[in-house]
Amino acid sequence: MKKLITVLFLVASMVVFFSVSAFAEGYTVGMVVKNVGNPFMDAAGRGGEEACGELGNSFIFQGPATPTVEGQIEIIENLIAQKVDAICITANDFDALVPVLQKAKGNNIKVVSFDSAVAPGGRHVHVNQADAELIGKLQVQAIAEMIGYEGEIAILSAGATMTNQNTWIEYMKEELKDPKYEKIELVTIVYGDDLRDKSYNEAMGLFKSYPNLKGIISPTTVGLSATAKAITDAGLVGKVKLTGLGLPSEMAEWVHNGACEAFFLWNPIDLGYLASYVAGLLCDGTITGEVGEEFSAGRMGDYTIVEAEDGGTEVLLGPPFRFDASNIDEWKDIY
Amino acid sequence: MKYRNSLSNRKLNIVFKWEWLLVILIIGISIVNGRLSPHFWSYTGIMDSLAVFLEKGFMVLSMTLVLIIGDIDISVASIVALSSVLMAMSYKLGLPMAVAILVALATGAGCGYLNGLLISLVPGLSAIIVTLAGSSIYRGIAYILLGDQAIGGFPSWYSYLAWGYVGKTNIPFVMVVFVGCAIIYGLLLHRTAWGRKVYAMGINPVAARFSGVPIAQMKQIIFTLNGLMAGIAAIFLTSKLGSSRPNIATGYELEVIAIAVLGGVSPSGGKGGIVGVCLALILMRLLRYGMGLVNVPGQVMMVIIGIVLVGVVMLPNIFSSRGGKRRTKEIQ
Amino acid sequence: MMDEPAKTKREVTFSRLLGFRELGIIIFIVLISVLIGIRNPRFLTWSNFHDILIDTAALSVLSVGMMLVLVTGGIDLSMESVLALTGMVAGMMVKQNPQLSPLFMLILGLLLGGLLGSITGLIVAKGRVVPIIATLSMMYIYRGITFIISGGKWINAYEMPDSFKGIATERFLGLSKLIYIVLVVYVVFYYFVNYTHTGRKIYAVGSNVEAARVIGINTEFITWLVYAISGALSGLAGVMWVARYASAQNDTASGFVMTIVAACVLGGVSITGGVGTVSGVLLGSITVGIINNALPMIRVSPFWKMALQGLIILVAAIVNIAIARNMEKSQLKRRTI
Amino acid sequence: MGFLEVDSVVDREDRYILELKGISKFFPGLKALDRVDFNLRAGEIHAIVGENGAGKSTLIKIITGVYQPDEGDIFYEGNTVIFHNPTVANRYQIAAVYQQPASFPHLTVTENIFLGHPIIHPTTKKLMWKEMKEEAKRLLRSLGSDINPSVTMSSLSVAQQQIVEIAKALSVNARILIMDEPTASLTRRETEDLYNIARKLRNDGVSIILISHLFEDVYEIADRVTVLRDGKSMGTWNVNEIDEKDLIKAMVGREISQLFPKNKVSFGKELLRVEGLSRLGYFSDISFSLRAGEIVGFSGLVGSGRTEVAQSIFGIAPVDAGKILVEGKEVSIKNPMEAISYGIGYLPEDRLEQGLFLLLSINDNITISIIDQLTNRGWLNPPREHEISNKMLELLQIKAPGIFHPVSSLSGGNQQKVVVAKLLAARPKILIMDEPTKGVDVGAKAAIHQIMSDLVAEGLGIIMISSEMPEILGMSDNIIVMHEGRITGVFSRSEATQEKLMEAAVKVDRLTQVVS
User: Fold this and answer.
1) Is residue C169 part of a domain?
2) Does chain D reach chain A with at least 3 CB pairs under 8 Å?
3) Hey, how many other C-beta atoms are within 10 angstroms of the C-beta on B317?
4) Is the CB of residue D107 less than 8 Å away from at least one CB of chain C?
5) Residue A30 burial class via C-beta count within 10 angstroms: exposed 0-12, middle 13-18, buried 19 and up
């Protein structure tokens, strides 16, 4: 019996220790990210908390330990049981969250997706970081400039199943059809699964399989920095150019040593702020998520809800930001 | 249970007590959860939270058998993925959904059969190696087939499987199916001659062979069953997700094994029962649910689950006397 | 079993069989290298071989630790989390104190990893928890602690001093320093396993626990020791890993433990205990390295990779058994008069 | 091994190298040893006999430091000592050779000999393999064996492993050598060799404690004998002062009437016929037949293929050629399940490993082979099972509190009987018994022989494999001798003699052959 009491005591004390009560006036907004322990997601969380603070809402930040859709479903179920008023989510899968989010909507919970969208049926509105077409275009333009509009390029993506990655890659291919890129050849697309060792190996493999490779686009944070490291280690700085989407904190080193002259990203803090702000406005009925509605989002200014390509509605954050040697040091400590 | 009595002995007594330990832990955790979160004591909340976990439950049931015969299967999560992908593809190819569901079951059973075939056909090839390779191969095939695509758009009735409730009650449909499966497995393991042979195999495989227990055939059946249950899990998981992808159910295998062990099943074979693993399933779920309600971050949750797992498994070892162990040896 | 003692001429069947087993994997390596070399000649260059060795460095260090645990009949799933936690601590330390010497960091990795492994070892040896469950729990726990101490933040390249990153990038006599670390580890463990009493005791425990106890081997200590060693080597590999990729994350090496087990299995280590050689594990790790390195080079579709890797493990395991069986059969044939 | 200082005969009589006084050992619910006294002179062979469960193993484990006594004192050359663990006992030059060689199958012979006390370079602490191998070779040669010290233990025969175990004991310069049932798995010839080794060691001044069931061993080589019963010492005698009958009385507390109660039974129809059975590497061209009411004895050296033939008939290992006919019909037996369905039962030699489920209850053990027939369309039918188990308990006089107790709670002899009960519950027509009385004390031995006699009287046929010559001669109607996988002699009960069997069994003695 003694051992049982010990166990119970241990369990109880642990649970008490980790419980953080989130009772406040106003609405409760739950933010579900792809996984916790990811700086990009944490930055979005900071923005979300800021917006909730301004609106007088309380904020819950949650994410599974690993980026799986099953983990996100479990969290959403828990949020439904906690009777939150809104959920902001960056989805690990475009389709697979729809059923559980429909259940949430059925419980009168407003759903805002951001960063990585869920299908229209599972959301009220999507906060889009940037136009997918623009993201694709910018990266192709950047790499073309770097290599002088001539030579072989490759793409190092994250998972083969990630929707946003694939959409961007489609737009890159689209952009490359433009006659001004006719001397550029996209030789392959490889996948690093957002694992550092695997991305690094894939990059190294690219150098060996394609000795004439001139440039790499890596539209994923882990892939971009692992490739930069690989270029540096292989002694190819200046010979193989690199651009893509990445975090300034991770890329500072590689911008300075020239492995990556420039890359892009939007501000995740702003993204989280806007998503959380939109969620607040949906809760108090200011907006309903219909096309054409206009609203003002605190420090971010005015926005209009537009129709999204996937058939739902979305709010567009703005064009992605270009980081290079001139501005990287301002940002590297922020996110 | 009458059979328990005929199994009465010191070691199995521990198992019996083990189940009571789990019951007490479940009550304790419920009380703590209730105090911490005002949302915990909600009938729908608890029901739904249990339901969300049940596709793993299906896998735990058959994994219990695999562990009792002293083997292990780490390919189940991959079998779930492959079954789901094949089911979705055959639906997309124009087969009726009901047939597609059969495809999932057949795929699961087929993969399990293949595991069992290799293990029983090639002596010296251990289950851990076969299923380790299998876990890459099966998911790999799912990737080859579907690549970066996802398949969705199933008929609307299909989502009822994971999301629907029985009639006007608040009982999730999946729970009814699970309870049915659990009863079948409980009867199979504890009330049939076949179940007796399963334990015999786990306790002493050589003696079992000499006693006329068809070892190879039993292994074949058990691994096939394990694959079949993964197929069932795939049907419910796909229904829950509304779509299929090659990367679903990642990491399920370790969780399933952990729940079975928490339920009193010994990975070295011969011990454990269905009641225990069902209780462990509830315990694990309530623990996670409670922590989820107070928004413990996922990574911290892993620490706590790890501590509970190792703590609960270690408890009887710490308190059981050394002499007792030696005595069994001595008498031999 | 023993590498060294069995190496005299006029050898007996069983040790010849083992020699043959390692020959088998060497033939496999040569065969696969030639095949890949035909498709991409750059595979067979010295610089690529050097790259493979660097890529395999962390894996080969980890495999030695895993081998010792497997030899006792256990398994250590927590290695990847120990690696991540140690790597994170190392990253945080060099971020705060860039002046720390790389050698000190490597030693720190060994010690911290050893400490974490000791805890796991205690749970297995004293708490008598089945290894797979004990190490699975510790895998969860250490991974979670990594998250808690880092607050979910990553340590990035610019926050690490060049000297630290130099562990992986600097060369000495044309070879990467990582390769020297691996060499040291292998020489030490080759000696430890074959020429020290404690090293042989590990095999005794894996071969027959009861008999080991009877001849006075402290089996609990040996069990504890192998987990402490596998922890220490995971810690060392953690520092090597973080230095190499110039990034410490809390999901570092997540899922890597299966690769370690695969390397051991390919290297002829028996999952049931008692069997495994240091040289075999090295070859096993290199084989895994070659497969990882070669698949991107011969432009295999990414979707095929996973299935191929699984198939290679399965085939290697079956071939191993088939060779053993064949030897046994020819032995039987000779016996019949 | 002359480590003993030269003592006068008088000194040797009075001074004991090892003395145990009032030793008790308790296990939960069991008093394994109850104030046992035991002493050992320098240079003597001292036998300890007793039924299974009498406490012999416990006593040995206390002497070797595996267990610590709960009461009592141990004196080594007159000084009190405490053996905390086997290493301490080793330091006092005490070594043991166990019945089941407690070896490391994956390791080499050299390692098996030296792992407990390797030769280590004094400064570098490096293991000196070359020296150890040389020493191992020397030790093995001194025992008349040329086993290669570099082969793995698993590649040796049981007899060879036993020799390695003795070499291991010698390597620590043992002054006290414990031999636990050393001859149980050996054939006559191997046993002879072992006796010679033991005598030689004694003459070199080593004290030997011999545990044995076989009175032959005791009378052949022992100087004194101590009898244990139910954890108590019944006394110590000089071997030439006590005869077999009194020894048995001391052991079992009663007189055993008859050891080989074989009654003449008239043979019935042919139950089993084997023609030209061969299995690559194990046996070839085996033919014989078994009639109802007949006991066919299989004699020969361990490793001569007797067990393999039996196991192939039982479907455990596949055969490469030959026919098996059951009651005149040719059958193909691929696994034990089929064998059981043809009415064949097999009592394995290694009961613990191959016959028992220690964690299961007596009932579950007895019914496991026939569980399918006892069910109600697959569902367990406890009353029917219990009926059969209780009947078996009564028939074989198994001493157990009830059928629901685990087999692990029974004494060794009763565990053996449970295996027999399991066998008989399947109602076989053909019984194969591999070393039916191995490791069994006299009392249980007689009981088992009686059961065998009763069974053949009921019309069963029995194939009995035995290494014990008196058992073969006493129980068999016909005797088949095997050597290196072939039948080398067939004798009827009347014409068989110990000498004839031996001649057939040992064509060329290859006791110490190297496997390569």
Assistant:
1) yes
2) no
3) 14
4) yes
5) buried
Q: Residues 378 to 417 of D: which have CB under 8 A from any B CB?
A: 378-380, 382, 385-386, 404-406, 408-412
**Interface touch C12/D120, C-beta < 8 Å:** no
Query: What CA–CA distances, in Å, run from D332 to B182, D311, D312, D314?
Result: 40, 14, 11, 10
Domain membership of residue B138 (yes or no) is yes
Q: What is the CATH number of the domain that holds C227?
A: 1.10.3470
Residue C131 domain flag: yes
Total domain count for chain C? 1
Residues of C in contact with D150 (CB under 8 A): 5-6, 8, 11-12, 15
Cβ of C168 and A66 within 8 Å? no
Contact C293 A39 (CB under 8 A): no
Q: Please list, in sequence order, all residues whose beta carbon lies within 8 angstroms of the beta carbon of residue D345, skipping any fewer than 6 positions away.
A: D423, D424, D426, D428, D430, D431, D432
D1-93+174-255, which class in CATH?
A: alpha beta
Question: Which residue among C272, C303, C321 places its CB closest to the CB of B144?
Answer: C303
CB B314 within 8 A of CB C129: yes
Best of B120, B145, B303 to mutate (most C CBs within 10 Å, chain C): B303
CA distance to partner chain A, nearest, from residue C292 (Å): 8
- B325 within some domain: no
Do the beta carbons of residue B332 and residue A96 sit within 8 Å?
Answer: no
CB-based contact B150 A161, cutoff 8 Å: yes
Q: Which residues of B196-231 are buried (b: 16+ CB within 10 A; e: fewer)?
A: bbbbbbbbbbbbbbbbbbbbeebbbbbbbbbbbbbb
- Report which of C117, C66, C35 is spatially closest to residue C284, judged by C-alpha positions: C66
Helix boundaries (H) for C152-245: 162-169, 177-195, 197-207, 209-214, 219-245
Q: Considering the domain boundaries, does residue B243 fall inside one?
A: yes
State whether residue A156 is helix, strand or coil. Answer: strand
CATH assignment of D270-343+428-506, among 3.90.1150.10, 1.20.1730.10, 1.10.530.10, 3.40.50.300? 3.40.50.300
Tens digit of each residue's pLDDT, chain D (516 residues)? 333 344 433 344 457 888 898 999 887 656 788 889 998 988 899 999 877 667 888 888 888 888 888 888 888 888 888 888 777 777 888 888 876 666 888 888 999 888 888 888 888 888 888 999 999 998 888 877 788 888 888 777 777 888 888 888 888 788 898 988 777 666 667 778 888 888 888 888 889 999 876 777 888 889 999 988 878 888 898 988 888 778 877 877 766 555 666 777 788 899 999 999 999 878 889 999 999 999 999 988 766 788 899 999 999 888 889 999 999 899 999 889 899 989 999 998 888 788 889 888 899 999 998 888 888 888 888 888 899 999 888 888 887 778 888 888 777 778 888 888 898 888 899 999 998 887 677 777 788 888 888 889 989 999 999 877 788 888 999 999 988 788 988 999 888 887 788 777 765 443 333 333
In this structure, what CATH number is given to the domain that contains residue B194? Answer: 1.10.3470
Chain A residue numbers with beta carbons less than 8 Å from the beta carbon of B162 are 99
Q: Report yes or no on B316 lying in a domain.
A: no
Query: Which residues on C lie below 8 Å from A62 (Cβ)?
Result: none
Asked if A121 reaches chain B (Cβ–Cβ under 8 Å), the answer is: no
In a mutational test of the C interface, the residue from B129, B139, B326 whose CB has the highest number of chain C CBs within 10 Å is B129
Structural domains in chain B (count): 1
Backbone conformation region of residue A107, classed left if phi is above 0, alpha if psi is from -120 to 50, else beta:
alpha
- Segments forming the whole domain that contains residue C126: 18-336
User: In angstroms, what separates the C-alpha of A33 from chain C's closest C-alpha?
Assistant: 13
C29/A contact by beta carbon, under 8 A: no
- To the nearest whole Å, the CA of A310 is away from the closest chain B CA by 15
The whole-model pTM stands at 0.84
> Using a CB-CB distance cutoff of 8 angstroms, which residues of chain A are in contact with residue C59?
none
